[in-house]
Every structure is written in C-alpha cells, then in structure tokens.
Amino acid sequence: MKVFGYVRVSTAEQATNGDSLETQKAKIVGYAMMQGWAVDEVFVEAGVSGSVPLADRPQGERLLAAVGKGDMIITPKLDRMFRSASDALGTLEEMKGQGTGLVMIDLGGDVTGNGISKLVFTILSAVAENERDRIRERIREVKRHLAAKGVYGGGKIPFGYDKADDRLVVNVEQQAILADMKAMRDEGRSYRGIADQLMGRANLKPMSIKRMLDRLDGIPEPQSAQARAGEPVIAAKTGKAKVVVSK
C-alpha cells in the first residue's frame, strides 16, 4: 500500500508563505504515524483556487493518476480537495469503486471504507442536492427577471403568451381564456368542470388548468405586440387574471 498526501492553498501569497502548507503537511504526517504508515509523497497544490475541480488541478491530476487499488490518500480537510459537495461525491464514488482509500482528517478518518463512510456520503449527497436546488432556483430567478421584461428566457412558452423576436407578447384570446378559468374557479367550479366548459375554445386537461391557475400570480405581463408597435391597449382584470385587448 502506498500513502499519498494532498495539500492546497488558494493564493500564490499563501503558497510562498509556507505556514499553511506546512501545517497541512504536519497534520498528514502526524495522522499517518498514528496509523503506522509512511507517507510516500505529498502532492502540493500551491496557489490554486478551490473552485477548480480536483481532476483539473495540476497536482490533483497527478495524484489521481498515481493512486491505485489498496492505496490511501490523506488530506487535512474536505475543502482542500474538492470544489463542491457534488465534486466530492463523484470523486469519492470513483475511489471507492477502485479500492482507493481517502482519509479526511477533519471528518475523522477513511470516508470510503469504515463506519463513518455512510454518514459522510449521506451528508454529501444532501448538500449536493441542496447545491443543485440553489442552481435551479438561480436559473428560475433569471428567467423570471427576463420574463418580467418581456424577454423569452427559454423553455415552454406560458399559456397566454406568444414568442416574437425573442420576446413574450400577449396572446389576447388565451388571456381571455385564463380570465374565464379564474372566474369559474372563484365560483367553485372543479378543474374538470372548467375543462369541460372550455371544450372547443381550448383543449386543456384539468391538471394543466390547475398548474396555470396556481402560477397565475407569477406570470409576467410583457408588453403586447400592439403596444410595442405604438397602438393603444387596455388592460382589464378579472380576478387576478390580466386580460389585454387592443382597441
């Protein structure tokens, strides 16, 4: 079995200072001594940002190429090796599959082969999912911001609007249907009843109607094609639905 260490600092200033690197190396050597191991090599990632995935770092790439089945990697902290929980989870799965051990001193030991591995992987999975949720939410926020300006941000065009020159423009006929849907729902009609009533005007399923009404408050009111062309428009409200009709 070969034992490798991995240390990283994020700026060139820290790298030349040496204290941070030396502290990390000392922790690795100390842990190895307690286990009765000799460290074969310590890979030093000097002045490399943690935002870079491990496999894309010069020393990280060398490390991953050097380790094999039965070998052990020691690093002081999770954030020394990985840019995110998603990066960590993917790399840990690969290491576990090839029989390589990974000790994260701050997490208590080998996260791929002992009793704490299940806990670590569960936590990382949860954090990774949270990261993905934040990314999706940021994408939704960008799309909402674009839609509020009448700019088409991709995806399915919402009912009540058309796409013209990368912008969302009001579809007057569909806006009227939305207003009628809202009015019927306010009167206590079921989604099935609304769908039946709209038959002939719009072929909509009950669940589609529910989704439309649920998000009605969040649908923007982009500038209509008539307004952008300089023609006057009148915006009338029925309940919370916005209906735009041209004079």
Using brief descriptors, characterize the structure shown.
single chain; 247 residues; alpha/beta; Rossmann fold; Hect, E3 ligase catalytic domain fold; 5-stranded mixed beta sheet; two-stranded antiparallel sheet; 10 helices; 48% helix; 17% strand; elongated
Helices and strands in order:
Blueprint (H helix, E strand, L loop, with lengths): L2 E6 L3 H6 L1 H17 L5 E5 L12 H9 L5 E4 L2 H4 L3 H14 L2 E4 L4 E2 L6 H32 L12 E4 L2 E4 L1 H15 L4 H8 L7 H9 L10 H4 L4 E6 L2 E6 L1
Parallel strand pairs: 1-2, 1-3, 3-4
Antiparallel strand pairs: 4-5, 6-7, 8-9
Helix pairs in contact: 5-6, 8-9
Structural summary, described in words:
The protein is α/β, with parallel strands linked by helices and 247 residues long. The chain has two domains: 3-132, 3-Layer(aba) Sandwich (Rossmann fold), CATH 3.40.50; 149-246, Hect, E3 ligase catalytic domain fold, CATH 3.90.1750. It contains ten helices and nine strands. The strands form three sheets. It has a five-stranded mixed β-sheet, with helices on both faces. A two-stranded antiparallel ribbon has the order 6-7. A hairpin with a 4-residue loop joins β4 (101-104) and β5 (109-110). It is elongated and about 80 Å long. Residues 218-247 have low confidence and may be disordered.
